[in-house]
């Protein structure tokens, strides 16, 4: 069976088409700038070549239609008929308390996702638009939703609740949800398969470090805590997100600047983090280059960035009474050896001992720690799309998705 995986953002659509008989990728690419001038789709061909096609894409419906058109194209496509697509799987960022596992799309599920837009206005609105576009263009194809926060639903209440009046939780669902759950789920299971150990006997800290970044504490296969909160803004310092900040500091900045809540949210999400401190870029590669050239602000930003990762690793080791495996994944975690190295320095008391030569690697399954390290430090490239495809296949075949 062929399954199409869609990840719809506010103005973008990433896609992969899988042949699930062997989980091979038949086609992949992305649509960008939906609803904006100069919209386009970029298609990655099997030989690695990329094609970019400009288009007028006022809504997600036109964006999804363009994906279908490219999949059917005799030259750059992968199928001869849309009937070959057996199902469509969607990534959904925020499932709130309503969705704690993947599910088949129904009108009730769509209403549920819509009701959670306030908790993730940019993400959920785009996801829902993608679902509705498929509803219109391929009304008979089954669709499945896989929720980013679902893997974190095993957190105990004392970990996910905020220390505010309880009615904010009962009335408005204000709590820690966590995100990147599909990635944390994939790499935590894959690392145990890679090492040949039983996940139900391991204490694992997974570090999904990209432009958005989060850390999760996974004890015997279940998440007990994670760094992101009600929204993806909380936790680590990120490319353009502040991460944890004193709420009173936010109020103080609003009073001084006259910013509205919306303005401040945009400021903390898009103008802060590494970009805000260094003033160079939200891309870690640019900041590492600037640091190597002697830029003091870039150096400070990197110190802050790595220090906060180390703090969360230490906190989660304490929460689990130890750690057996630390996993690095996502764009920065897989490619920036300096971030991995610096973040793991000072963790010798936990039994972490890095190997500099092994750490000199990019985006490859590999042990990064020394042979005599009590804690295994491992890089596992993430693959959220295959998790979505597997869950989709299981559900439309009447089975419950497996953990991996």
TrEMBL record:
Keywords: ATP-binding, Cytoplasm, Kinase, Magnesium, Metal-binding, Nucleotide-binding, Transferase. ATP binds at residues 14, 208-212, 283-285, 331-335. It is an enzyme of class 2 (transferase). Pfam families: Acetate_kinase (PF00871). Pathway: Metabolic intermediate biosynthesis; acetyl-CoA biosynthesis; acetyl-CoA from acetate: step 1/2. Its main location: cytoplasm. This is Acetate kinase. It comes from Hallella multisaccharivorax DSM 17128. The gene is ackA.
């Amino acid at each position: 069976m062929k399954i199409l995986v869609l990840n719809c953002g506010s103005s973008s659509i990433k896609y992969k088409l899988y042949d699930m008989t062997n989980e091979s990728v038949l086609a992949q690419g992305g649509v960008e700038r939906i609803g904006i001038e100069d919209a386009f789709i970029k298609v990655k061909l099997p030989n690695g070549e990329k094609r970019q096609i400009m288009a007028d894409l006022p809504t997600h419906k036109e964006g999804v239609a363009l994906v279908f058109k490219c999949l059917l194209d005799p030259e750059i496509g992968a199928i001869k008929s849309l009937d070959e697509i057996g199902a469509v799987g969607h990534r959904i960022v925020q499932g709130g308390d309503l969705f704690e596992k993947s599910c088949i799309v129904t009108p009730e599920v769509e209403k549920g996702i819509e009701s959670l837009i306030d908790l993730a206005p940019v993400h959920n609105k785009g996801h829902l638009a993608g679902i509705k576009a498929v509803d219109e263009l391929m009304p008979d194809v089954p669709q499945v939703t896989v929720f980013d926060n679902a893997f974190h639903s095993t957190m105990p209440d004392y970990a996910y609740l905020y220390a505010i009046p309880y009615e904010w939780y009962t009335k408005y669902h204000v709590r820690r949800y966590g995100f990147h759950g599909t990635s944390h789920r994939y790499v935590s299971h894959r690392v145990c398969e890679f090492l040949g150990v039983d996940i139900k006997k391991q204490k694992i800290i997974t570090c999904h470090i990209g432009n958005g970044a989060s850390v999760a504490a996974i004890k015997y296969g279940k998440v007990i805590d994670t760094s992101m909160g009600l929204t993806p803004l909380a936790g680590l310092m990120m490319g353009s997100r502040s991460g944890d900040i004193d709420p009173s500091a936010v109020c103080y900045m609003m009073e001084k600047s006259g910013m509205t809540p919306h303005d401040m949210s945009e400021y903390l999400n898009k103008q802060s983090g590494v970009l805000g401190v260094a003033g160079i870029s939200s891309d870690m590669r640019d900041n590492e280059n600037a640091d190597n050239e002697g830029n003091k602000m870039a150096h400070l930003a990197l110190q802050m960035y790595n220090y906060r990762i180390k703090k969360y690793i230490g906190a989660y080791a304490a929460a689990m009474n130890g750690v057996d495996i630390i996993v690095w994944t996502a764009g920065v975690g897989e490619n920036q050896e300096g971030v991995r190295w610096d973040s793991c320095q000072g963790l010798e008391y936990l039994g972490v001992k890095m190997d500099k030569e092994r750490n000199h690697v990019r985006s490859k399954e590999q042990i990064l720690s020394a042979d005599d390290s009590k804690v295994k430090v491992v890089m596992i490239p993430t693959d959220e799309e295959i998790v979505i495809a597997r869950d989709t296949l299981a559900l439309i075949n009447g089975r419950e998705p497996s953990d991996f």
